[in-house]
Amino acid sequence: MTGIPASAAGGPSGARRTAPAAQTPGATAADVARGSARDSGADEGATAGQNGTAPREGARAVRGGKIGAAAVDQASVWNVANLLTMVRLLLVPGFVALMLGNGGHDPAWRSFAWAAFAVAMITDLFDGHLARTYDLVTDFGKIADPIADKAIMGAALICLSALDDLPWWVTVVILGRELGITLLRFLVIRYGVIPASRGGKLKTLTQGVAVGMYVLALTGWLASLRFWVMAAAVVLTVATGLDYVRQAIVLRRRGIAERRAALEEAQR
Known about the structure:
Layout: H1 11-23, H2 29-50, H3 65-75, H4 80-100, H5 107-133, H6 139-162, H7 168-187, H8 198-215, H9 221-267
């Protein structure tokens, strides 16, 4: 007895795996190598099993139960992030009905409409955070999330302008910018992705606050305050839109230059 556990010293199970290849008369070096490779794969599978994940043939085992669970959720459309996006889409017709209820100027109905709008804005914050944090990004989410964002904001702006609470030119500027930048992202996606800037995030927050204040039937100094908040939102909307156009131009030029350089290198 040496005091060394069998698993550390190779153990009986390890001896059973390697003995046939090493002790069989006439065994070649290739046979021994193949036996060692099989043993290595078995050990790797055992380690993966202890970590709570199942080994996959031809691929490295996923380490950690949480990461493995996230990968499973990623493969399914029915994850938490996408469900929040779908809730936001379903809120749009309900929000419109509440905004236009009882003539569109009833303070009670407008309060309910504001609650629906606030829920939509909150889910917009959480679904993106969940998708990025837990690797729940799916093709459905990439398409549905921006549609849901534009749908709830567009519905609010159009309703406000239709009720003469907000000038139509403000609605046209904001929606024109949002749709234009979304289209621009798709046009330059072959060269890369335009990341969301801090100015863009501040613009989204300011727009949400301003539109929410207009949805509520405010009076007095709060009605005056919402005018200035909306003015700030319009300025940020235009400024960040121009910045995204600049980024798209730079990204396209860089992508074209890299492709040209790659072609020239391939022709040498």
